[in-house]
């Protein structure tokens, strides 16, 4: 969704106020002419109102005030405050005229006044920007482990309590693929600087040795540009709408439905019920979305006495375990499984605002005659630290048999959404002088972990003559991240002596600007110079971490009705169809133009993308699908048989996962 930014909104409101003022002025003029007309005294021979004949020969056409004024079309003065005397802005600071006094561009107004000149107004007072620090932590936890028994199968089962250790171990394994997965939130300025340096060292070490036994795509350099999808540079990023629909609309198929299910009317007037059983045990949607726009402060020229450290990093990991076990009576069903879609999408973009900006040469536009300085004692912090986390288990255990009508069981279809948008809009200056160093880091981490190891089978004797379909995959794991920097990658240059002298003078409290600084081509055409001096460091740290972990290991047994087997039943089983979506974007304003660095300049951009797709649950420490619930004791048996009877052949119902279930569906179990 595209919205109007703050500056355009302010301009639109200002223009609207001007139009309203013009409208009011013109209408007031018409009202004064109307008010000047005096009411006419009635003639003496006018009959009384009660004796007047009543007639309405005209058709009513509604209220029409007949206002003669219509707003003129836009003219050349529309939007110009000089066209309206009451809307004039305050006059700008005036530069004194010294016809006999030899001045240089470095002369300030107060110096000129002390020498005999007269100034109508001094330099404007500037407001220094304050630090902005935001810490946000969003977390969603959900346990939807359903146990259900549907139909007259006459069976009972007793699932044991099982932990989710395997899912947590898989999540830890996915975290280990990221060299910066264990970052802790920093507090003080010193801790933030240490965090930035630590990130740079970790990413350098990982890129040099690719510290992982798995195949992981790594791209690192001083500058990265373009769109990468699963390690491949592409022209255009995929669109999420082509892979996932958040709102699914039911399309009517023309079949008459009712409380008894799908029904058809025969020639003799009899009603025939079309029996069907539908199970939806997946279809979970987990979404983390974060947008950070940092426009807090920037300058046309930035002069830093110390070092300039710039980091941009995107680390993305998608891990899925999809080892399904299809048992007796189901393995010959048709399957409409689509393949699992696993996508890591990363974009690095840059906008150079100084590109194509042709400055005057000084003789045409001139250079600043005065300046105003505002100071910050200490550090300037621009920090947004955002973490989003979703952990969900949807491990369903159930027995299904046909009842001869339409049966629908939905034990999944959960949605969890974390969403945050941050927009920092602050101040701009012509010149920013930093006495310390600049630490500029934009970091995005995204991790998706999905366990979708399903067990599906039929009890001995289960069969159907109707259609049967089973879908156990069709999952989507989506990581999309973008880092957009405003400021050219080649804007850096060594700190000139004039800027170093100016920084030293500002540090000593002199508030003087060197003549060579004022004559910089970047300031050509400016009458005055707005200067921000920061005594300490600038720490610009934007961090987004998104994690989604889902365990959707469904275990379903199909059985026949004890009293009347419904062989013509249509079966539709879906245990997959989950979507784990992480979407993050950082737009960061670095500079409007040039950046001079007195110390060392370090620039690093890193992209890490890992896709772990396993149909072998032994990988990364996971267990065999039949052992997802450790040594679980589960059985399906005839309740009339002895307690020591063994489970029926072809039944795959180990246990309910992730601890004891308290789902309301368990009251339907027969014991």
In DSSP terms (H or I, runs of 4 or more residues), the helix count works out at 6
Mean pLDDT across the residues is 77
Determine the fraction of residues in helical runs and give it as a percent range: 10-25%
Largest sheet: 11 strands, mixed
Shape: flat
- Taking pLDDT < 50 over at least 5 consecutive residues as the criterion, the unreliable ranges are 73-122, 251-261, 617-671
What's the helix and strand layout?
Blueprint: H1 6-36, H2 109-114, E1 132-143, E2 147-150, H3 165-176, H4 189-209, E3 217-221, E4 226-229, E5 232-234, E6 262-265, E7 271-274, E8 276-280, E9 285-304, E10 308-321, E11 325-326, E12 341-351, E13 370-376, E14 380-393, E15 397-401, E16 406-410, E17 415-434, E18 438-451, E19 455-458, E20 468-471, E21 476-486, E22 492-494, H5 497-507, H6 515-518, E23 528-534, E24 538-551, E25 555-559, E26 570-574, E27 579-589, E28 594-597, E29 601-614
Parallel strand pairs: 1-14, 2-15, 8-16, 8-26, 9-17, 9-27, 9-28, 10-18, 10-29, 11-19, 12-21, 13-23, 14-24, 15-25, 17-23, 18-24, 19-25, 20-26, 21-27, 22-28
Antiparallel strand pairs: 3-29, 4-5, 4-12, 6-7
């Amino acid at each position: 969704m595209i919205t109007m930014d703050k500056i355009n909104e302010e301009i639109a409101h200002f223009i609207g106020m001007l139009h309203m003022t013009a409208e009011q002025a013109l209408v007031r003029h018409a009202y004064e002419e109307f008010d000047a007309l005096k009411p006419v005294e009635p003639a003496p021979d006018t009959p009384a109102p009660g004796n007047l004949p009543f007639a309405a020969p005209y058709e009513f056409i509604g209220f029409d005030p007949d206002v003669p004024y219509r707003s003129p079309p836009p003219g050349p003065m529309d939007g110009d405050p000089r066209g309206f005397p009451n809307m004039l802005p305050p006059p700008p600071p005036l530069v004194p005229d010294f016809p006999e006094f030899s001045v240089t561009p470095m002369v300030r107004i107060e110096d000129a006044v002390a020498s005999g000149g007269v100034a109508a107004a001094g330099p404007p007072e500037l407001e220094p920007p304050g630090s902005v620090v935001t810490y946000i932590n969003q977390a969603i936890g959900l346990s939807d482990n359903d146990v259900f028994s549907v139909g007259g199968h006459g069976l009972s089962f007793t699932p044991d309590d099982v932990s989710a250790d395997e899912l947590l171990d898989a999540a830890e394994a996915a975290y280990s693929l990221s060299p910066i997965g264990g970052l802790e939130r920093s507090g003080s300025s010193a801790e933030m600087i240490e965090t930035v340096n630590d990130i740079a060292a970790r990413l350098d070490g990982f890129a040099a040795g690719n510290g992982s036994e798995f195949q992981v795509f790594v791209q690192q350099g001083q500058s990265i540009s373009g769109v990468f999808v699963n390690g491949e540079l592409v022209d255009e990023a995929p669109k999420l709408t082509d892979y996932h629909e958040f709102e699914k609309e039911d399309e009517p198929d023309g079949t008459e439905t009712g409380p008894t299910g799908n029904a058809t009317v025969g020639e003799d007037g009899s009603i025939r019920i079309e029996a069907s059983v539908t199970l939806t045990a997946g279809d979970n949607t987990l979404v983390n979305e974060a947008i950070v726009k940092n426009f807090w402060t920037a300058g046309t020229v930035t002069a830093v006495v110390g070092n300039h450290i710039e980091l941009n990093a995107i680390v993305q990991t998608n891990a899925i375990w999809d080892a399904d076990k299809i048992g007796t009576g189901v393995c010959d069903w048709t399957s409409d499984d689509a393949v699992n879609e696993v996508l890591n999408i990363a974009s690095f973009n840059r906008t150079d605002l100084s590109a194509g900006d042709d400055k005057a040469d000084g003789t045409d536009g001139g250079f600043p005659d005065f300046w105003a300085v505002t100071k910050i004692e200490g550090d300037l912090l621009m920090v947004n630290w955002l973490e989003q986390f979703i952990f969900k288990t949807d491990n369903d255990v159930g027995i299904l048999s046909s009842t001869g009508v339409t049966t629908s069981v939905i034990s999944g279809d959960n949605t969890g959404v974390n969403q945050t948008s941050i927009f920092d809009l602050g101040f701009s200056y012509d010149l920013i002088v930093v006495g310390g160093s600049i630490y500029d880091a934009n970091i995005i981490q995204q991790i998706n972990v999905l366990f979708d190891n399903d067990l599906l089978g039929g009890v001995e004797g289960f069969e159907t003559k109707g259609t049967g379909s089973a879908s156990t995959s069709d999952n989507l794991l989506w990581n999309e991240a973008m880092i957009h920097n405003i400021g050219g990658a080649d804007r850096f240059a060594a700190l000139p002596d004039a800027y170093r002298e100016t920084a030293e003078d500002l540090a000593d409290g002199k508030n003087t600007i060197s003549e060579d600084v004022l004559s910089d081509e970047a300031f050509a055409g400016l009458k005055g110079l707005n200067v921000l001096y920061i005594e300490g460091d600038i720490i610009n740290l934007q961090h987004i971490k998104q994690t989604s972990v889902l365990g959707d290991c469904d275990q379903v047994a199909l059985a026949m009705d004890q009293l009347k087997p419904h062989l013509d039943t249509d079966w539709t089983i879906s245990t997959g169809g989950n979507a784990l979506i992480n979407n993050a974007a950082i737009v960061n304003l670095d500079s409007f133009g040039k950046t001079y660095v007195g110390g060392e300049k370090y620039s690093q951009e890193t992209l890490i993308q890992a896709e772990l797709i396993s149909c072998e649950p032994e990988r990364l420490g996971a267990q065999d699908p039949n052992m997802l619930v450790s040594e679980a004791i589960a059985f399906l048996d005839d309740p009339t048989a002895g307690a020591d009877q063994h489970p029926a052949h072809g039944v795959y119902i180990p246990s309910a996962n992730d601890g004891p279930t308290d789902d309301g569906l368990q009251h339907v179990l027969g014991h």
